[in-house]
Amino acid sequence: QLQLVESGGGLVHPGGSLRLSCAASGFTLDYYIIAWFRQAPGKEREGVSCIGSGGGSTIYTDSVKGRFTISRDNAKNTVYLQMNNLTPEDTAVYYCAAEQRPPFVQHMCTMALREYDYWGQGTQVTVSS
Prior knowledge:
Layout: E1 3-7, E2 10-12, E3 18-25, E4 32-39, E5 46-51, E6 58-60, E7 68-73, E8 78-83, E9 92-100, E10 118-119, E11 123-127
Parallel strand pairs: 2-11
Antiparallel strand pairs: 1-3, 3-8, 4-5, 4-9, 5-6, 7-8, 9-10, 9-11
């Protein structure tokens, strides 16, 4: 009954922007650390960004620092990934993932793939001229 649903992917030209959304149902998103992962054809899944629970801070992989921003809206039970200045190397299926943490205390996130128990179905991002 716990679900994460990604949306917002699509085709964009290099230098363009997209905002991905990860909507949670069946649980309170603020009690979970959330991460965005991506997997390009022929490559392993890699962590892109994550955000801690209870107001915890964010982490970004080096290749997206300064271009991507992760945020959460607890009232909407949704996490976003704003992606600016996209390049063809950003082309991938993007997944959001969640892992429970105790509430009312800040918890750091991690981009360790095996840490996360709950996954969305993925949304395709294609950056091409």
